């Protein structure tokens, strides 16, 4: 006996009064109908439940009827109709949701498969319902968790989609022209017409639904005389098929049982093929499962109906230095299946434009979603906003667009700010003119790399090629050929997956290419900076390379100072000072003053006030700048030498406003310090009078000291 678990491809037609199940038979490559096996085999199973009195367990279908007739339990019905309005149903005093009862029924009814396949699991399951609704879809999707299979293996479609997939998976001669279906049940009669268009590839199928309840509302089944039924149906046939070229007509539903349609069928099948079948929707759902499982060729036709998106939705942006349309939603998708996303960086854009193109008419419309609200008052340079856009649908026409600010690495952390917009894709007020954008959207693949590359000099981490380009472009004075080493190459290859780029970089380094060429390889590898911007940066690199050695070393020292490394900065500034003494004719007085000014800042950050004071004084004597003068006077005040500060102020005949400004800056700094937690900690330390008080505050002091030492060391 074969005990291996067999994954089944299933189609399940769920109606309020009955269900039908079809299963793909891999041996015969056809559909098997799963029947209830009793005194006779029946493929239409009543959609009813019975909760047994004895153990509160459930039985379904014919077994439920049998249990109720034997007074062994309570009958539960009409739970499928309770799905969309989210109604509750009372069962012997207990309240159940319609969704919960539907899932119980489906699990019980699927046990019928065990009689055909003793060891089975869901390979792919498609449920067809009369009409899709959000509550219906959510209720049925929850079935996957209860039956312990992946949600991606469960689809929900409407009857029209099931019929479309059934009809177009038959022999080609049966849908050479249009196809029709009459569905007749106790709910009444409905005609579904499939208009087949072969003018474009893939073939387009457009469904039209015609309610016929004014002729047949279902109450006449089993009550009206067959000749009268035949006469009425003949009238309906002539009405709905007039002026249409139809290859095949299908009839389904219990209303067609009894062989009463004689004259009407003869008329209906004149120059047409006709078939009567009871399981068209479950078989169509099974064909959809085959498609979802990858066992049927995808894209052979586009099936459009009321629950299918008939428009292609896209955004336009730049990728690999070419403008392209990035499709987010393809025409032919069922609305609830849409879970689209994209990532982009605006370049000169304060909005994102959503484009909609009708699949049949090719008419395009568009509307804009503003981006100005993101970031609040924060001013960011261009190309430093990174957005995640997501699209889903509330129903067949209302699309929900979500935008989220993802930040730009450590340069501009994510604000977690989000915005949501809901729009009707069939809104005729949208702009139908050609859109001319002032900038572009830079499209990215959205990969989330969690391992950064760390630049030791600046202490900045980058997580993507775009951020690496931004760092190089805006920190070019800190970049040298040594930057392009094995560590960077390894990170680009292993964490970003850019093997081809690393190969080019290694070859360039091996061949002794210049810094300008190495930078160009990086910047051209991703569509972030334009060719004009890259050319401008290369000119800057050429200017740097033309600087004299003293200027080059000053730039190195300035970078150490900029990134909070005053010790390294002073070491280089002292070398610059010696070089200036030996080559005074190579630099200006202003240049010398700027060097001493920066040395003063470095000493001040190391709390060496006297050395900082001397440097600021020398700086002012050489460059005569207000910044150096004010720094010199401020340092006198910080050191408590206010009388000397006043003497120097009078000697330079400075306006009282200048002295007032310096004093105000000092007061502002004091207030700022007092507002920090460390100020409160220092006040507590002044009041320590016992060892226990010290033990209480010691952890806070040690933590602060470690933080300060870390910053001091540039860690």
Automatic annotation (TrEMBL):
Domain of life, per lineage: Bacteria
TPR repeat spans: 593-626
Spans through the membrane: none
Gene3D superfamilies: Tetratricopeptide repeat domain
Entry keywords, A to Z: TPR repeat
Keyword presence, Transmembrane helix: no
Domain called DUF5716: residue spans: 124-424
Record Pfam families: DUF5716_C
InterPro entries documented for this protein: DUF5716_C, TPR-like_helical_dom_sf, TPR_rpt
Protein name according to UniProt: DUF5716 domain-containing protein
Organism: Frisingicoccus caecimuris
Classification lineage: Bacteria, Bacillati, Bacillota, Clostridia, Lachnospirales
């Amino acid at each position: 006996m074969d005990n291996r678990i067999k994954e089944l491809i299933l189609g399940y037609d769920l109606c309020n009064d009955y269900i039908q199940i079809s299963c793909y038979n891999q041996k015969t490559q056809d559909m098997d109908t799963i029947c209830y096996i009793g005194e006779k085999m029946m493929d239409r199973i009543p959609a009813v439940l019975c909760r047994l009195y004895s153990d509160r367990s459930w039985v379904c279908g014919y077994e439920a009827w049998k249990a109720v007739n034997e007074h062994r339990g309570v009958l539960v019905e009409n739970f499928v109709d309770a799905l969309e309005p989210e109604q509750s149903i009372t069962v012997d005093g207990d309240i159940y949701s319609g969704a919960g009862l539907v899932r119980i029924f489906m699990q019980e009814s699927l046990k019928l498969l065990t009689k055909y396949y003793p060891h089975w699991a869901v390979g792919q399951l498609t449920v067809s319902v009369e009409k899709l609704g959000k509550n219906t879809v959510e209720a049925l999707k929850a079935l996957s968790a209860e039956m312990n299979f992946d949600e991606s293996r469960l689809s929900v479609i409407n009857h029209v989609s099931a019929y479309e997939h059934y009809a177009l998976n038959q022999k080609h001669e049966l849908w050479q022209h249009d196809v029709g279906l009459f569905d007749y049940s106790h709910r009444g009669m409905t005609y579904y017409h499939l208009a087949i268009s072969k003018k474009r590839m893939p073939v387009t199928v457009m469904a039209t639904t015609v309610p016929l309840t004014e002729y047949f509302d279902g109450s006449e089944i089993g009550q009206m005389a067959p000749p009268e039924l035949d006469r009425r149906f003949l009238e309906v046939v002539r009405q709905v098929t007039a002026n249409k070229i139809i290859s095949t007509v299908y009839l389904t539903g219990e209303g067609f049982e009894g062989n009463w349609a004689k004259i009407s069928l003869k008329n209906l099948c004149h120059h047409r093929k006709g078939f009567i079948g009871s399981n068209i929707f479950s078989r169509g759902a099974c064909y959809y499962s085959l498609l979802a499982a990858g066992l049927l060729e995808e894209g052979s036709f586009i099936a459009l109906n009321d629950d299918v998106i008939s428009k292609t939705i896209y955004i336009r942006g730049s990728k690999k230095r070419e403008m392209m349309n990035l499709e987010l939603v393809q025409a032919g998708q069922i609305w609830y299946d849409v879970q689209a996303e994209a990532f982009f960086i605006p370049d000169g854009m304060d909005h994102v434009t959503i484009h909609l193109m009708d699949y049949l008419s090719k008419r395009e419309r568009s509307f804009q979603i503003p981006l100005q609200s993101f970031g609040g008052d924060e001013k960011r340079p261009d190309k430093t906003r990174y957005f995640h856009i997501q699209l889903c649908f509330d129903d067949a026409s209302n699309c929900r667009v979500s935008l989220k600010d993802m930040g730009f690495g450590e340069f501009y952390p994510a604000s977690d700010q989000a915005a949501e917009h809901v729009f009707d894709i069939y809104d005729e007020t949208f702009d139908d003119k050609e859109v001319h954008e002032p900038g572009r959207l830079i499209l990215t693949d959205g990969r989330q790399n969690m391992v950064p590359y760390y630049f030791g000099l600046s202490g900045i981490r980058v997580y993507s090629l775009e951020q690496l380009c931004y760092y190089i472009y805006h920190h070019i004075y800190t970049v040298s050929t040594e930057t392009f080493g094995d560590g960077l190459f390894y990170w680009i290859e292993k964490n970003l997956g850019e093997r081809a780029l690393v190969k080019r970089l290694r070859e360039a380094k091996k061949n002794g290419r210049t810094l300008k060429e190495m930078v160009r390889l990086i910047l051209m590898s991703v569509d972030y900076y334009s060719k004009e911007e890259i050319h401008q940066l290369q000119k800057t690199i050429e200017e740097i390379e033309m600087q004299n050695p003293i200027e080059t070393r000053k730039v190195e020292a300035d970078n150490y100072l900029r990134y909070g490394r005053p010790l390294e900065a002073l070491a280089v500034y002292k070398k610059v000072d010696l070089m200036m003494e030996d080559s005074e004719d190579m630099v200006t007085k202003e240049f010398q003053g700027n060097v001493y000014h920066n040395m003063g800042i470095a000493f001040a950050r190391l709390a060496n006030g006297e050395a900082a004071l001397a440097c600021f004084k020398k700086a002012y004597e050489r460059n005569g700048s207000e910044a150096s003068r004010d720094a010199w006077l401020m340092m006198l005040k910080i050191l408590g030498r206010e009388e000397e500060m006043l003497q120097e102020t009078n000697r330079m005949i400075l306006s009282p406003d200048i002295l007032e400004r310096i004093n105000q800056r000092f007061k502002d700094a004091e207030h700022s310090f007092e507002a920090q937690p460390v100020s409160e900690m220092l006040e507590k330390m002044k009041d320590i009078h016992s060892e226990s008080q010290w033990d209480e505050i010691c952890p806070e002091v040690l933590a602060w000291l470690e933080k300060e030492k870390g910053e001091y060391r540039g860690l």
